[in-house]
Design brief:
The chain is α/β, with parallel strands linked by helices. It is built from 7 helices and 10 strands.
Length: 319
């Protein structure tokens, strides 16, 4: 009986210890399972409480995109109703969620839109030239859509307006510049156009649909050479008309592989109207007088350019 009692006592002594140990292990396992959920929940609560940038609902950005495979609508063409009159498409750089360069509260997209409107108004005032803007409001356009609008409208000239910015040692840079497509960009444009899957395209009225890759490349290259010469001619006129009237950062035509200039059969230039980081330039581009001066220079260059091409441009009115 004692042995039995002793055994029973022994069992009574150690069973609670085993039970506690087992419960402890279960509790540890439970903690391992629950802890990540608790930590994650706490992170969400903290995130919602402090609205961490990039994760709170207030930081969700939505963009309106065109339908897949679709084309954006064409802008209104203003000016003479005679379709034989030359058409210039003015492109205000950047827009929408893309502000472009900026400094001291000045945004490039606002400057370019104001300048583009001023150039349009001046051309319409002088008469004889049809005008269209790629954008007449604060909206975003893809680079290819900008030149694409001009090509679809069968424009005779494409002028893209921008404003530059700089920092560091060149922070004092100022003045306007004009760019045409670089030689490297010309070659890339020719290769890209000739190699498109959709061969039903035209260059200067010549369809590429039934031509070989080699012939297509030659046609595009020849067209691009002529287009480059006409683009350079307009660039020279802009520099001539602006001499002594506005400051130039570069006094000669510059070239670079800008996407908006890569049209094989459309004379195209990109004008940097000035530097938003230069107070003198920024003040000039924001002033009524500065915009009037810029628009007068561009408009006169446009009219002389078309006059040289024997386009039916009406005589310039007084003033």
């Amino acid at each position: 009986m004692c042995r039995a009692l002793s055994l029973q006592t022994h069992c009574t002594r150690f069973t609670p210890g085993l039970t506690i140990a087992a419960m402890s292990r279960r509790f540890q396992i439970l903690l391992l399972l629950i802890a990540p959920v608790v930590v994650f929940g706490a992170m969400i609560l903290v995130d919602r409480a402090f609205q961490a940038p990039g994760r709170g609902l207030d930081y969700v950005l939505r963009f309106e995109l065109p339908p897949a495979g679709g084309e954006i609508g064409l802008p209104k063409v203003q000016g003479p109703l005679d379709a034989s009159r030359p058409l210039v498409v003015i492109d205000a750089g950047h827009g929408g969620h893309d502000p472009g360069a900026g400094a001291n509260g000045v945004r490039e997209k606002d400057l370019t839109l104001a300048l583009a409107r001023a150039v349009r108004d001046r051309l319409l005032e002088l008469g004889g030239v049809r005008v269209a803007l790629t954008r007449d409001e604060d909206r975003f356009l893809l680079l290819t859509e900008r030149s694409g609008i001009a090509r679809r409208l069968k424009a005779d000239l494409f002028v893209s307006i921008h404003a530059d910015s700089t920092g560091g040692p060149s922070a004092t840079a100022r003045g306007a510049s004009i760019y045409t497509l670089s030689a490297r960009g010309t070659n890339e444009a020719a290769e890209r156009l000739a190699g498109r899957e959709n061969r039903a395209d035209t260059v200067n009225g010549v369809t590429l649909e039934d031509t070989s890759d080699t012939v297509s490349a030659i046609l595009v290259d020849l067209s691009q050479r002529d287009t480059q010469a006409r683009s350079s001619e307009f660039a020279g006129l802009f520099l001539r008309e602006g001499a002594g009237r506005i400051a130039f950062h570069y006094g000669t035509e510059q070239s670079a592989a800008f996407v908006v200039l890569k049209s094989p059969d459309l004379p195209s230039v990109l004008i940097e109207a000035g530097y938003v980081t230069a107070p003198e330039d920024a003040d000039r581009l924001q002033s009524v007088e500065g915009r009037a001066q810029f628009s007068a220079i561009v408009a006169q260059a446009v009219r002389v350019y078309f006059a040289r091409k024997s386009a039916p441009v009406a005589p310039q009115s007084a003033g």
